[in-house]
Amino acid sequence: MEELFDILNEDGTPTGVTLPRSQVHREGQWHRAVHIWVIDEWERILLQQRALNKDSNPGLWDISAAGHISAGQNSLEAAVRELQEELGLTVAPGRLEFFFADKDTYSKDWRFVDHEFHDVYLLRITAAEVRNIKPCPVELAEVRWIAPEVLAEELRYEGEYFVRHLNEYPKLLAHFGVEFHSQSE
User: Which CATH superfamily is domain 4-175 in?
Assistant: First the structure.
């Protein structure tokens, strides 16, 4: 059965309408998603490489874990679900630190339009939890840990290998005291 999303107005207010995922992306309807950045004890950031069969951004490096908020679900519930589904991590909602909210648009072509409101979270994990990460092969090609400074450099010079998160990368890197300058600067 196809996942259902609550539809929003462009200002983020609920419309009261629920639609299937494929229709939401085909029509470019506004909906909600969660992004979770996982950080280890050594202040490294976990990146995931999206599976090659994904309908958006296949094979690109991306946020530690992310996903849509299903109809009737809140963002914390979705974040906990995505961490379990994508990384095999079971965490209590209280461990997730709300970082910020964002609004973004992505369009692959006229067949896939993504208008999303993101709730962005940070999750700090222990060395023992790092060992418990089990990437889902259906969702992810691989994962890797990266220092914030290295991420800033890779985004600057190899940005085409990353999912585009124009507002998110600078805020994440600033959290670590790292400045980010895009290639165009």
Answer: Nucleoside Triphosphate Pyrophosphohydrolase (3.90.79.10)
